[in-house]
């Protein structure tokens, strides 16, 4: 079958504009859930356009295509979903068996506020950072807490939002910083 859809445009009230191609002079029949929706004759260049007399019903409807006088249907179809309140934009999806369906109308592009990919899961306890520990210096004053090394963070899936970097500790005035004792220096002329 040479007849094909080229375009389906839907309005919130269910009205449609449907266009495509076929053999010049051929009459194309468009069906909504198997019920005739309308017919259009292909022009000398093979293009045809149909604006049905009545809108499609609210909910979902599958549009299929046939040639007048034949029983065959095009494997290509379009699914049109109309909001029952007629306030939201309609959804139009093109479908061909064996191929990925394509959304042609109705879904807004993903924004940072509404990511298309779910956020990465929080780290599991095995990958969670170790708790900070404090050690005492020779003078009996506690040294600043030190973070132990942790395993590499879990890999995030492509498109997942980046994680926020960890907070850095606040600076401590130099008079309060405890230092570790240095190793004793052997007396000159002796071997260690």
Overview of the molecule:
- Strand 8 (91-95) and strand 9 form a beta hairpin.
- The chain is mostly beta strands.
- The chain has strands spanning 4-10, 16-21, 27-32, 35-41, 47-50, 59-67, 77-82, 91-95, 102-105.
Keywords:
single chain; 192 residues; mainly beta; 6-stranded antiparallel β-sheet; 9 strands
> Helix tally?
0
Average of the residue pLDDT scores: 74
Largest sheet: 6 strands, antiparallel
Order of helices and strands: EEEEEEEEE
Radius of gyration: 35 Å
Query: Between the first and last Cα atoms, what is the distance in angstroms?
Result: 94 Å
Share of helix, binned: under 10%
Q: Which percent range describes the beta-strand content? A: 25-35%
Overall 3D geometry? globular
Q: What structural category arises from helix and sheet content? A: mainly beta
Unreliable runs: 145-151, 172-182
Total beta strand runs? 9
Strand order of the largest sheet: 4-3-6-7-8-9
Brief overview:
The chain is an all-beta fold and 192 residues long. It has strands at 4-10, 16-21, 27-32, 35-41, 47-50, 59-67, 77-82, 91-95, 102-105. The protein has no helices and nine strands.
Detail the topology: elements first, then pairings.
Blueprint: E1 4-10, E2 16-21, E3 27-32, E4 35-41, E5 47-50, E6 59-67, E7 77-82, E8 91-95, E9 102-105
Antiparallel strand pairs: 1-2, 2-5, 3-4, 3-6, 6-7, 7-8, 8-9
């Amino acid at each position: 079958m040479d007849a094909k859809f080229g375009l389906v445009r839907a309005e919130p009230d269910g009205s449609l504009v449907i266009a495509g191609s076929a053999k010049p002079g051929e009459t194309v029949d468009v069906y909504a859930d198997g019920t005739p929706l309308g017919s259009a004759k292909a022009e000398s260049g093979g293009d045809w356009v149909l604006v049905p007399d009545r809108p499609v019903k609210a909910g979902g409807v599958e549009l299929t295509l046939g040639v007048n006088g034949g029983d065959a249907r095009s494997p290509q179809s379009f699914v049109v979903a109309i909001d029952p309140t007629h306030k939201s934009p309609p959804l139009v999806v093109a479908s061909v068996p064996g191929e990925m369906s394509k959304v042609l109308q109705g879904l807004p592009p993903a924004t940072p506020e509404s990511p298309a990919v779910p956020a990465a899961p929080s780290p599991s306890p095995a990958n969670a950072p170790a708790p900070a520990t404090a050690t005492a210096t020779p003078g009996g004053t506690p040294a600043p807490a030190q973070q132990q090394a942790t395993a590499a963070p879990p890999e995030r899936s492509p498109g997942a939002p980046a994680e926020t970097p960890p907070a850095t500790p606040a600076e401590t005035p130099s008079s309060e910083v405890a230092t570790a004792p240095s190793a004793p220096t052997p007396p000159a002329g002796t071997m260690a």
